């Protein structure tokens, strides 16, 4: 293959499979994150985790109560995750609106400090209302040996 043909071939591979270093910025969130609320209220003592896939998309939320009960929410692909220069936005569609987590990713990429709010979409008009919900922190869970 001639050198110019090889460059074209590599370009085609990058277009189809993605080039090294040009990946999705949200992929930095891959893994399991512990969720803690500044004011936990009824969630006092619960262990809550958010799981992100290799593309940085939220795929599951789990919760374990202090009494031993547990719950799991598998999130569908309507959820969006964006990371832009350390600013993190996660949108989770829900009945009547969208849950939005907005926060800042630490320089070591192991903590997100932010807030969770709910954007309500009112049916009788074009009005959207954002209700503040809670301040929270997500901390990356490091597996043993890693």
Topology:
Layout: H1 3-17, E1 31-37, E2 47-52, E3 58-64, E4 70-74, E5 80-84, E6 87-94, E7 97-105, E8 111-121, E9 128-140
Strand order of the largest sheet: 4-3-2-1-9-8-7-6-5
Measured on Cα atoms, how large is the radius of gyration? 19 Å
CA distance, first residue to last residue: 43 Å
Q: Might you state the CATH topology name?
A: Lipocalin
Major beta-sheet overview: 9 strands, antiparallel
**Mean pLDDT, rounded to whole units?**
80
> At the fourth CATH level, what is the homologous superfamily?
Quinohemoprotein amine dehydrogenase alpha subunit, domain 2
What features would you describe in this structure?
This protein has 146 residues and is mainly beta. The protein has a single domain, classed as Quinohemoprotein amine dehydrogenase alpha subunit, domain 2 (Lipocalin, Beta Barrel), CATH 2.40.128. The protein contains one helix and nine strands, in the order H-E-E-E-E-E-E-E-E-E. A hairpin with a 5-residue loop joins strand 2 (47-52) and strand 3 (58-64). The radius of gyration is 19 Å and the shape is globular. Residues 1-22 have low confidence and may be disordered.
What are its keywords?
single chain, 146 residues, mainly beta, nine-stranded antiparallel β-sheet, 1 helix
Q: How is this structure best summarized?
A:
This protein is mostly beta strands and 146 residues long. The chain has a single domain, classed as Quinohemoprotein amine dehydrogenase alpha subunit, domain 2 (Lipocalin). It is 10% helix and 49% strand.
